[in-house]
Amino acid sequence: MNINYIKELNESQCAAVTYNDGPSLVIAGAGSGKTRVLTYKIAYLLENGYNPWNILALTFTNKAAREMKERIARQVGAERARYLWMGTFHSIFSRILRAEAQYIGFTSQFTIYDTADSKSLLRSIIKEMGLDEKTYKPGTVQARISNAKNHLVTPTGYAANKEAYEGDMAVKMPAIRDIYTRYWERCRQAGAMDFDDLLVYTYILFRDYPEVLARYQDQFRYILVDEYQDTNYAQHSIVLQLTKENQHVCVVGDDAQSIYSFRGADIDNILYFTKTYPNTKVFKLEQNYRSTQTIVCAANSLIEKNERQIRKAVFSEKEKGEAIGVFQAYSDVEEGDIVANKVAELRREYHYGYADFAILYRTNAQSRIFEEALRKRSMPYKIYGGLSFYQRKEIKDVIAYFRLVVNPNDEEAFKRIINYPARGIGDTTVGKIISAATDHGVSLWSTLCEPLTYGLNINKGTHTKLQGFRALIEGFITDQADKNAYEIGVDIIRQSGIMNDVCQDTSPENLSRKENIEELVNGMNDFCALRQEEGNPNISLTDFLSEIALLTDQDSDKADDGEKITLMTVHSAKGLEFKNVFVVGLEENLFPSGMVGDSPRALEEERRLFYVAITRAEEHCYLSFAKTRFRYGKMEFGSPSRFLRDIDIHYLKMPHEAGISRSVDEGAGRFRREIEGGFTRSASPSRTTPFGSASSERKERPKAQIIAPGVPRNLKKVSTVSGGSQAMSSGPVSVAGLQAGQRIEHERFGLGEVMKVEGTGDNAKATIHFKNAGEKQLLLRFARFKVI
Ligand code: ATP
Ligand code: MG
C-alpha cells in the first residue's frame, strides 16, 4: 500500500498531501489536481494511522464520492476503503439525522421532500391562507425560504429580523414569514425535511446537543471537502462545528469555479477561509494536467475578465494542441447537426470512443436538438439531469405509496395517492381533511385515522372509503417488518392497484409506463443485492427511499454508462473531464443567461460557468452558437455570446477553418466583427442572407493573425457553384457546371453527392444523396450549398 507520492504528484501537490499540522486550504485553477490531492491525502492519512471510519470526505455528487472511494480502494484495499465516510453533504447529514432523529423531534423514518413536494406544499399553504398565487408565486416563495435556511435562519429568526431577510420583499410579499412559519410546522407534522432542512437540522442538532456534537467530533478526526467554493453558509458552519476543536480540516477549491450562488453557495467561504481558521496553511497549485496549452491559455484569458477573483497563474506542459473551434449555425437544428458531424469526423481522425465526448449546454431544454441529431446518426449518448427517471408520473405514484408506508404522516405522498388509483375520494373530502388537520396541528393521516376526534365532517360512504384506504396502507406497514425493500415494493405495486391501472390501457404511452415501473422494481432488486454483497442483509424501504431522494443531477439513474457521448448542463459537468468538449448555445440571453440582467455579479458567475465548461476539455474544445433558435414556442434571433469576445482571439479557430465554412468570403473578418460588436445584420442596409450581410463584408479574407499560432491552417479549398462567393446564401444561384458525381456541402443537410441534374434556368433541380439526410431533390434556385 505504499504510494509513490513523488512519482504521482508534483512538489506542491505532495506538500499539500503530506501537510498534517493544522487546517489547510488548497486553492487552485481547474485541472490542477485538487481532487487528486484530496484523494491521495486520504490514502496518506490511512497510511499514517487514521482509521477509515474516522475520516469524513464531502464531495459535490455521490458519483464523485464513489469514484474517489474506488481510487482509494485500489491504493489501500477495498476492505479499509469501505469504512470511509464519503458522500455529499446532504447524504452524510441525512445519515446522521436518521441516527439522531429523536433529539430533534423526528423519527428515523423521516421523509425527504424533493423540490416538487416543497412547491406543492407551499402552493396549498398559499391557497389556504387566501393569498394570491400571482403575487406569492410558489417558486419565488420557495427560493426565499431556501435562502433563509441556507443562512440558518429559522422562522423565528426570520420574524425577529425581518428587515434583514425580507428587504423590499417585505412590501411586495408581507406574508412570507407567515408562510415560512406554516411551512416549517407542516413539514414537522408530516415528519418531512426538505433538502435545506437536512443542513438546518444538522446544525441545530450540533448546536443544541453538545454531547451529540462531541460524539461526532470524536468520530470525525479529519474532514476533507472538495469543491469548497460551492458550499453555502450552513455547510460551512457545520464543518466549523465539527472541526473547531481539532482543526483537522482540509478543503480544496477554486474561486473561479463558484457557480452555485443561486442555491446559496457563498464564494466568501473560500475567500475568508483563512480568517475562519487563522492557522491555515495555503497551498497553490498552478500546473494544469488536464488540458492542452491552448485550452488553458484560452480559459485564463476568459477568467481574467472577472474582477472578483484570486489571481492565479495556471499553465500546462502538455502539447500546444489545436485552437478552439468556433461554429456558427444558422439554426439550433443545424447546430445539432454540426456537432454530431464533428463528433463523427473526430472519431474517424483520432479513433476516439464515444465516451470521449461531452456536449455541454446552459439549460436542459437544449438537449433535445442534440439528442435528435445523434439519434438520427445512431450515435449512442447518455443524458444527465432533465426529467429524471424518478420524476416520471408513474414512478412518483409508486414512490408516494412507499413513502406513506414508511412514514404515514407524509402529507405530499398522502395527497398524491389518497385517490389514486381512483377510489371515489374527491377533492372536497381531501380539502376537509386538510383543514381539520391544520386546525388541530396534526397530520392528514392522524385525521383520517381519528375522524371523530378531529371533527371531520363526512358521510358514511366516504368514511368507509377512507377506512378502506387506511386498512390498505396499514396492511403494508405490518408486512414491511419482515420483508426487504424489493419484496414489499412488489407487494405494494400489485395490491395498491397501480399495476392494474397501468395495464388497463394498451396504448404505447401506457406500455412505457408499465416498463418504467418494472424498471423500478428491477432497480430495487439490484439495490438490495448490492447492499447485501456489501454485508447489509436487511435493506428496508427507508434505505431505498433515502438513496433515491438524494440523487444529484450528475448521479446517473443507471449504474452502467457504457461507451456513450455525454450530454449535460455545464453545472453538472463540474469536476469532470473529457477528451473532447462542445460548449453549445453561446448566445446572448442563453449563455450568459437572460436572468443576468444588468447585475455585474451575476454576469461574473456566468463567466465562471463558461470557464468551468471550457476547462473540462483535455484535447479538443469547440464552441458554437446559432443565429436562430426555437425557444418558448417561437423562433428567436440570437447574437453571439459576449463571452466569445472575452477569449483571446489567438486561441480561437474561425468558423470556416473549423471545417464548417459557408464560403471563404463569409470568413473570419465578419465573424470577428460579429463577436466583437454583436451581429451587424441590422447595421448593413445591403441584402441580408441567413448568415448576415452578403455585400461589402464578402471581400474580407481570413487574416493570419486571428489563427492560433502553431495551429495547422488546414484551409479547405472552396469553390462555389456560381464561381463567385454567394454560395450558401439565399437568392438565385447559377448552376453552370453542376454535374452528377460532384460533392457538395449544403447549409442544412451537410455533405452530399449530386446524383443527377435536370431542367434549366429557374426550373433546374438536382437529386442529391446526402450522407446524413438521405436523398433529396432540390430546386437549385433556392438551394443553399457549395461545391467542394
Ligand atoms: P477541477 O478544478 O476541474 O475539479 P482538479 O483541480 O480537481 O480539477 P483533478 O481532477 O484532480 O483536478 O486533476 C485533473 C487531471 O490531471 C486528472 O486527470 C488527474 O488525474 C491529472 N493529474 C493531476 N495531478 C497530476 C500529476 N501530478 N501527474 C499526472 N496527472 C495528474
Ligand atoms: Mg476537482
TrEMBL record:
Please list the residue ranges annotated as the UvrD-like helicase C-terminal domain. Answer: 293-575
MF-aspect GO terms: exonuclease activity
The record's section on InterPro entries has: DExx_box_DNA_helicase_dom_sf, DNA_helicase_UvrD-like_C, DNA_helicase_UvrD/REP, P-loop_NTPase, UvrD-like_ATP-bd
Q: Show the catalytic activity.
A: ATP + H2O = ADP + phosphate + H(+); Couples ATP hydrolysis with the unwinding of duplex DNA by translocating in the 3'-5' direction
- Keywords on this record? ATP-binding, DNA-binding, Exonuclease, Helicase, Hydrolase, Isomerase, Nuclease, Nucleotide-binding
Q: Which domain of life is it from?
A: Bacteria
Q: Where is the composition biased (Polar residues)?
A: 681-695
Q: Which top-level enzyme class is recorded in the Swiss-Prot or TrEMBL entry?
A: isomerase
**EC number, as in UniProt:** 5.6.2.4
Q: One Pfam match, by short name?
A: UvrD_C
Q: Where is the UvrD-like helicase ATP-binding domain?
A: 7-292
**Positions of region (Disordered):** 676-703
Which residues take part in binding ATP?
A: 28-35
Which family is it part of? Belongs to the helicase family. UvrD subfamily.
Its name, as the record gives it, is DNA 3'-5' helicase
Organism of origin is Bacteroides zhangwenhongii
